[in-house]
Design a protein that fits this description.
177 residues, 5 helices
Amino acid sequence: MAKFRIKTETIKPLYAGVGVTDLAVERVRDYVTVAQQRVTSIELEPSALRTQAGDVVNARRAAIEKRVSELQAEVNDAYDALITRGESLVTRIRKQESSKATVSSAKTTTAKAKTTRTQATKATKTTARSTAKKASTTAKKTSTAPKSSTKATGTAAKKTVSSATQAVADAAQKVGD
């Protein structure tokens, strides 16, 4: 484990600030040099100045338009790369065994839940009809089917949760690959 050295770590932002200042001064000096060279090469005739200024503006405009186009292309390329990377990750996660097991388990749980709902509805209707004839005896006999189905649904749901947990753990390991 790396040791945290407070003296070393606290001075880093100071060094970064000094580095930024040094870089800024270097750039300003370069720009001043270029500007001085341009001033000495400019003719002092008004028409020549107008022509040179127009040429400089046109050249700058063209350079800016070119750079904007380049940056747009870079952004589009980066976006496409992110799409490809995300799609690859999702595909890998979907293909992993734990994800397939989760999907299968979820389908089983859904089917069992539907069966339980159907049986409970039928049992309720049968119990309601039979209650008029034999209240307590019929109710006990007809309501046992939904209990076993309910238990099976609960078991299937637990398996689905377990599979999903494993799928998430496996997927987490794939992120950043």
